[in-house]
Amino acid sequence: MPHSTPRLVSTRGSSQCEDFTSLKVQGLCPENGGLYVPSHFPHVGLPVLESWRGYSFPVLAQAVLSLYLPETTISTDDLKRLLEKSFSTFEDERVTPIVTIDANFHLLELYRGPTLSFKDIALQFLGNFLEYLVQKQTVDKPVVVLGATSGDTGSAAIAGLEGKTGIKVVILYPEGRVSLVQELQMITGNSANVTCLACPGSFDECQTLVKEAFADKDVQARFQLLGINSINIVRILVQTVYYFYSYLRLAKKIGDSIDYSVPTGNFGDILAGYYAKRMGLPLGQLVIAANCNDILPRFLNTGTYSLNNVVPTISPSMDIQISSNFERYLYELSGRNSEQVATWMHQLNTEGSFSVSSTELAQARRDFSGYVATRDGCLETIAQIARRSEGTMVLDPHSAIGVSAAIQARNHDIPIVSLATAHPAKFPDAVSKALDTVGIKNSPWLSHPSITALVGREKNVGKLSMFTLEALLKYL
């Protein structure tokens, strides 16, 4: 299929385009702190989609990613090898199996990787890809992967990068605001190249410090910083693959519309769906599923993106107010107006809010819908699905928010897919509480061998006493 290969530009404007394989683009734009986005979206027509039916996940991933990573930057054989290696770590050869809840209502299981989170899908590949880039390029300063996590990114990043040659990994997480399992997955490893830092505050504060490090000229001069959060554009592109994969398996006819409901925190997962749609995948409604930290549904209701205090919930990976990837969508919403995006981001940082025009709000409402699930609604959804399936289908508190939103949003004549983003064993307290209400005891979904193996392991964790670059630099 003839097409021009996209390059990368900054959401806040930049003097030049960059290649996807440049180490420079694996984080924020050093010129202005913007996020890298494709210069355009390669088009995938219906005949090509038809030809992709039946592809395995690794083969489909190669077909999609090769649109962004031409053979001049990474050979076909090397890309194939990296993808096969990345997905060989999953417990299901389908990588992202699909389960049917009822007619036209499906669950896409994204948690079959080594840390039982959807983030394994991108981060298993990204770990191998970054090691490949470092080995292929001459780097004259220490290479440090720096990231913040609200729970799952940290453990998935560590699983993808532990032991990688020439790369140090530093992960910040909000102490007391991730689940016990998430914390154990991060701090019980023994890889010499990994440092985990427990921080006093919220995920947003951790993420802000990481962004500050990426934007600091002195830090840039001393270290080659690489991003592992979804600020790394390669993560988003890999995540588009499971939208293609599930669509091609569920569509009765290529061209039919399918809706998707996505548990949303940092906006990366649903942005991947939006990108897939821009590439030509016939997706219908993209549903933003939020907990009470509902900044994105509020934006769709009012046209104003306004920060509130983060409220800790039973779905901690979604306890976010500053959804970093939303900036990438704003770039598209503004007609790729980098000056407007920079203005909005400045207003957000200085005033705590910004507003879009009525025309832009109308477009946002065409692109997305937003629904909120309360704590009780989340627990009720876990219980309801478990009861209906006689205990064979159990959701974690994040996936339950996606299903709750799907129930609110669905048109029964159109298939809808809800993304299951984590294994319920990562959140046993909340899940067992919900199951108790329907008389389900000792569910096998409350444990997993990889989690059981963490108990009793030595903990390796540092403490970041203050949210300052000076304090962080001691660990880089």
Automatic annotation (TrEMBL):
Alphabetical GO biological process terms: threonine biosynthetic process
Domain (Tryptophan synthase beta chain-like PALP) ranges: 94-354
CDD domains attached to this UniProt entry: Thr-synth_2 (cd01560)
Name recorded for this polypeptide: Threonine synthase
Residue span(s) of domain Threonine synthase N-terminal: 9-87
Keywords for the protein's UniProt record, in alphabetical order: Lyase, Pyridoxal phosphate
Modified residues (N6-(pyridoxal phosphate)lysine): K119
Family statement: Belongs to the threonine synthase family.
Essential cofactor(s): pyridoxal 5'-phosphate
A molecular function (GO) term: threonine synthase activity
InterPro entries: Thr_synth_N (IPR029144), Thr_synth_N_sf (IPR037158), Thr_synthase-like (IPR004450), Threonine_Synthase (IPR051166), TrpB-like_PALP (IPR001926), TrpB-like_PALP_sf (IPR036052)
